[in-house]
Write a structure and sequence with these properties.
256 residues; Undecaprenyl pyrophosphate synthetase; alpha/beta
């Protein structure tokens, strides 16, 4: 109880320090399996606890005024995991996307949800559910949640290049007109995704793992690495990440 009270006071202090709120936060949700192993739990339980943590963090982000969140939920490399784990993950993803359609928070806050990643790799029943959730929130434009599934940064750029070449061949784009804006418009053909302001990675791993290389690394986003595994991520961890972004913004102002 004492620890909880101290954390609430510390959270208020951190919030007082933060004057600049990032528009777009990207999160690498790492550590579900390690958390489960350390707690003596089944891997599937670790992923379920991670999904619960995601919902809590989304509430905090919305409360703080972050308009765009991108979640690195499942990479192209994750398909190499064993079949039982994949089956439990796909079942969990399907349940979460199904819940989006009737979630009061989504409709009250006008949150648009979309998947980014290689849809050709997603199981058919899961993809159908994802597209239904996208359709149910398509008309919202106050907040945006991008769920990166079957996602790889280099793969995303390859698909964008193919799409641009196809439009060059049909005369829709002149080769000389290709610029960074054209490339960004072809990275994801759903709702526009702005440059990343802040990347958060949990699990005490110091790398960005092929995540949004154009929108994050290409725009020199701030990065916050932290030790807690994703299921143990707290509001003070989010606020500490916000403070890193705020410090970067203050530094840029001083340099300017």
């Amino acid at each position: 109880m004492l620890r909880s009270a101290i954390e609430r006071i510390y959270a208020r202090y951190l919030l007082w320090q933060v004057k600049h709120i990032p528009r777009h936060v990207a999160v690498i949700q790492d550590g579900n399996r390690r958390f489960a192993r350390d707690q003596g739990l089944n891997t599937a339980v670790g992923h379920k606890l991670g999904a619960d943590a995601t919902e809590q963090v989304l509430d905090w982000a919305c409360e703080l005024g972050v308009r765009h969140i991108t979640l690195y939920t499942f990479s192209t490399e994750n398909f190499l995991r064993d079949e039982d784990e994949l089956a439990s993950l796909f079942t969990l993803f399907k349940a979460k996307f199904t819940a989006i359609m009737t979630d009061e928070r989504v409709h009250k806050n006008h949150i648009r949800v979309q998947m980014i990643g290689d849809r050709s790799l997603i199981p058919g029943d899961l993809l159908t559910t994802i597209e239904a959730a996208e359709k149910a929130t398509h008309h919202y434009a106050d907040y945006f949640i991008n769920v990166a599934l079957a996602y790889g940064g280099r793969n995303e750029i390859v698909h964008a290049a193919r799409s641009i070449l196809s439009e060059v061949k049909t005369g829709l784009i002149a080769p000389g007109a290709i610029d960074p804006g054209i490339v960004e418009s072809h990275l994801n053909r759903g709702a526009p995704i702005p440059p990343v302001d802040l990347i958060i990675r949990t699990g005490n791993d110091y790398r960005t793992s092929n995540f949004l290389p154009w929108l994050a690394n290409g725009h020199e986003s701030a990065v916050y690495f932290c030790a807690p595994y994703w299921p143990a991520f707290r509001k003070i961890d989010l606020l500490r990440a916000m403070r890193v972004y705020d410090q970067r913004m203050h530094l840029k102002k001083r340099i300017a």
